[in-house]
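Hi D.,

Good news: the full-assembly prediction came through. Inputs first.
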Amino acid sequence: MFDIAASLAKIIILTHTTLILAMYMPWVERKVSAWIQDRVGPNRVGYAGLLQPIADTFKFIFKEDVVPGHVNKTLFVLAPCFAVIPSLFILAVIPFGPAVQVMGQSVDLVIADLGVGILFVFAFSGLAVYGIVFAGWASNSKYPMLGGVRASAQMISYEICLGLSVVGIFMGAESLRMLDIVQQQIDGSWNIFTQPLGFLIFAIAAFAETNRLPFDLPEAETELVAGYHTEYSSIKFTMFFAGEYAAMFVFAALVTVLFLGGWDLPFMDSASFAAMGNWGALLGFAVFLVKSFMFLLLYVWVRFTLPRFRFDQLMNLGWKVLLPLALVNILITGFLNLP
Amino acid sequence: MPENALNDYLPVLMLLLFCVSFAGINLLASWALGKRAPTNPDKDSAFECGMQPLDQGRQRFSVRFYVVAMLFILFDVEVVFLYPWAIKYKALGMFALVEMLVFLGVLFIGWLYVVKKGALDWNTQPKPGRLNK
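Then the structure:
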């Protein structure tokens, strides 16, 4: 009973953090882009436009949900679900803070500390491709179709780089468990220092996996209108949007856990977190969020710095540059870790 | 410990339920609260920048997308094979290093073959093979 209540609390905390971040990321993005481009940005609804995301959400719900006659209805409805469910589901294995003490019991701040850990992440981030492919196919229209096939090719190509870039981490941590990987970084040094090449490959692949600029080919608005969600409106469009931003947060959280030491602070170790009791857990959660948010800001920064790739450049980068680099990274790690 | 393993997955199931109901409630809310307007042929047709749709929506697309999909399956399986080896790397020591060199060598030769064959070139025509020279 206690376990179920604890799991429920953790699920509510983590999913709501993600959803609220996903809701406010567009606002952050608009504000930062306005700042980069010397504009004002949203400033009408509430102070500094802070109520804008809430207004947008309600507006999306109250708009007409057009299901055009030429689409495949089942897949058309399923696609936005497949876009949003996997990105939230990956949260299951992401540890977001040191253990808390509740009613005399120690509770790890991770929804499920699975032995397969990161494999779970790759399994379900792979499922996100289906949402986009379904959308492209079900729409029965040219632009979504093009966006759909592009997205599938792009996402599966970079998934290989994503998978290869983290192998070096496992060689250090000797585990796929997320908590073990964080613990290893708290005891030793952060993986970004021991695996700089792996971090670079993972970060680039994360941009491609979430279809963010400079890899937003599937929805390249200047050539494909809106790509795979051209035919979507109202809440279904919002779900694609929410799915994309939730995926951004999930990948930011993954970068934090795998490379930036999770909730680790340079001058603290596990004992000093434990000494602070539940305040330590809260501090850990805050550190985790700040680190993730930094990576989210990097997404925005890159978006307004780099132009979009051409499709052949994108595929070349993935297959001919990042993949051999990832293999070299494994090789180097192998030689360095030789006992 | 199979019992423990199942207990591990109970929160995962709860999270899945939460995610599915989140998607379901969203769709339901829009269905219940959304505006409904009469439809017409133009609204019903596929979007093509304001033009009447020409031809079918589902066009033929480049065969290279299939090639990429096939290559993905090959390489992704090889990536998964690397994981158990990576976890036991420190325990296995020198043996693991040699094993890795062989495995990564095979992987690299496969990759080199794919690149040389022009399977990943998007701009040029495929290189003429023995059959279509």
